[in-house]
Design goal:
The complex is a heterodimer of chains A (about 110) and B (about 190). Chain A is an all-alpha fold. Chain A contains five helices and no strands. In chain A, about 50% of the residues are buried. The chains are: A mainly alpha (about 110), B mainly alpha (about 190).
């Protein structure tokens, strides 16, 4: 594996777009949601329950969890941003973990 | 919970587009496509670019193998929509029975050793990322998979770690097997952007 990663720049762009770029919801909130979905600290209700659930087992997300975030966030688009940020946070954790151990394995052989 | 704006489209132009595509294709436009059309100012460009690169970009993996990886991640994340959608696309590139065997038990399926080793790695990555070690990656490399190909597989799992989560949270409607097959043919032809 060369130093160049064909996916890392795209993953970085995705991370920025989902968690840092201006949107209807504040970046700080999306970053907190993403961190919570990847095992991070508790955040404010009702975002905490939905973020944790999306990270751990999204198929068990309840209508009540989404409805509570929809009400708090103020619009469907804002609620969608929260759901996407949680999904991105949980998955980017896996990108980071996977590429880290891959790099370690390659370094161990060179 | 489903969001009505995603269902019907945000804005008249998208509502008409969704209706037109549904009418022209003779089937309800799947929710994954409706989400792709929704709130496009937010993260869609980068998500589309990463998805296209992971699923259709240059790689040692065939398109069918990457679609099978996507279906496997969907299985591990209990996402029936993505299992159906990406299993159907994989089945256009390899025998349907092999796809079904892999979804049932990839260790026992008649898959190449490198792909099996990679799926073992992706299973840990998806279900127990904290348990992942360099030894797990070494096993994949030892099976003859290049570092670039392992990273390609991690990118597929990353994309579908995101999509399966929002598909489940938003309660995507499940198309019929025939509709999955037809939608799969379209995705195979047009890609993800």
């Amino acid at each position: 594996m060369s130093d160049f990663s064909r996916h890392a720049p795209l993953v970085t762009a995705l991370r920025r777009a989902a968690l840092e770029a201006p949107a209807l919801t504040k970046p700080e909130l999306r970053q907190g949601v993403a961190a919570r979905a990847s095992g991070g600290p508790v955040i404010e209700a009702p975002y905490d329950a939905l973020a944790r659930q999306i990270g751990e087992a999204a198929h068990r997300v309840t209508d009540a969890q989404v409805q509570a975030v929809l009400t708090a966030a103020g619009s469907e688009k804002a609620a969608f941003e929260i759901i996407a940020a949680a999904a991105a946070g949980a998955s980017l954790l896996r990108w980071d973990a996977g590429t880290k151990v891959l790099r370690e394995a390659i370094d161990a052989t060179t | 919970m489903r969001l009505p704006e995603i269902d019907k489209g945000d804005g008249l132009g998208k509502q008409l587009l969704i209706r037109f595509i549904s009418l022209a294709s003779g089937m309800r436009l799947p929710d994954a496509a409706r989400v792709a059309f929704y709130h496009k100012a937010f993260f869609k460009g980068s998500m589309g670019a990463l998805t296209q690169a992971a699923m259709r970009g240059a790689s040692d993996w065939t398109v069918g193998e990457r679609e099978l990886m996507a279906a496997m991640v969907a299985k591990w994340n209990a996402c029936p929509f993505c299992v159906g959608a990406h299993g159907a696309i994989a089945a256009k590139q390899m025998p349907r029975r092999l796809v079904d065997d892999a979804l049932e038990d990839f260790e026992a399926a008649d898959l190449p050793p490198g792909l099996k080793a990679t799926l073992s790695f992706l299973e840990i990555l998806t279900l127990r990322p904290d348990d992942l070690t360099a030894q797990d990656a070494s096993k994949v490399l030892g099976a003859g998979v290049t570092g670039e190909a392992v990273e390609d597989a991690i990118a597929v799992a990353t994309v579908f770690g995101i999509i399966t989560r929002y598909a489940n949270a938003l309660a995507f409607a499940i198309p019929t097997a025939d509709e999955f097959d037809r939608a799969g043919a379209m995705l195979l032809k047009r890609g993800y952007q």
